[in-house]
Amino acid sequence: MTPAVPQPPSPRPVGDRAEAELVIKHLTDVMDALLAVVEQETELVRAGRVSEATRLEASKNELSQLYVANTARLKASQSYLAQTVPETLASLRRRHDTFHAVLQMNLTVLATAHAVSESIMRGVSDELARKAMPHGYGSTGRSARPAASGMQPLTVSRVL
Q1: How many CB atoms lie within 10 A of CB 27?
Q2: Considering its fold, how many domains does the chain have in total?
Q3: Where do the DSSP E strands lie in the chain?
Q4: Which residues lie across from 137 on neighbouring strands?
Q5: What pTM was computed for the model?
């Protein structure tokens, strides 16, 4: 039997209108900062400067944690916010939709870069295996292909 993983405490709901507006303002600032980092990452990956893009990971993680904490707090206060600051909440939802669209574009760029790099690595690996393969014919008269278990793994240095 595995021990139970402790769950983080549920976020504390906002207490009054001023606090609600402060939390919403903080979330908006966090989303703006996160969007700036994500847009910078997207541009760097599009330009093929992946090693520079990886340097943004720490700030992206920190901002993501703040984003999650703030959204959890607002979700815990959703009914209160709908009653006290409905116009601010509606504005936040619109900004959030824009935020998600930019994140989706970033994920698409990252997935494309991953697929391209994987395709390149497979091509290099296949070419190395083809060159290392002895040239001869099998019993059927066709060129012999070595078993997949006989292929050497490809080793990549991550130092650029």
Answers
A1: 20
A2: 1
A3: none
A4: 143
A5: 0.71
For residue 42, what is the enclosing H or E element? Answer: helix 17-46
The two tokens of residue 22 are: 């402060």
Residue 97 domain-assigned (yes or no): yes
Give the residue from 81, 79, 76, 63 showing the smallest Cα distance to 26.
63
Residue 56: CB partners within 8 Å, gap ≥ 6?
Answer: 37, 40, 41, 44
Tens-digit pLDDT profile for residues 45-65: 889 898 899 999 999 999 999
Q: In which residue are the tokens 């944690």 written?
A: 65
Contact between residue 113 and residue 50 where contact means Cβ atoms under 8 Å apart: yes
- Residue whose tokens read 């083809």: 130
List the structure tokens of 60: 């992206």
Asked if residue 143 is part of any domain, the answer here is: no
Integer Cα distance of 44 and 32 in angstroms: 18
> Where is average pLDDT lowest: 3-17, 30-44, 68-82, 135-149?
135-149
| Spatial distance between the Cα atoms of 119 and 137, rounded to a whole number of angstroms | 29
Range of the domain at 77: 17-130
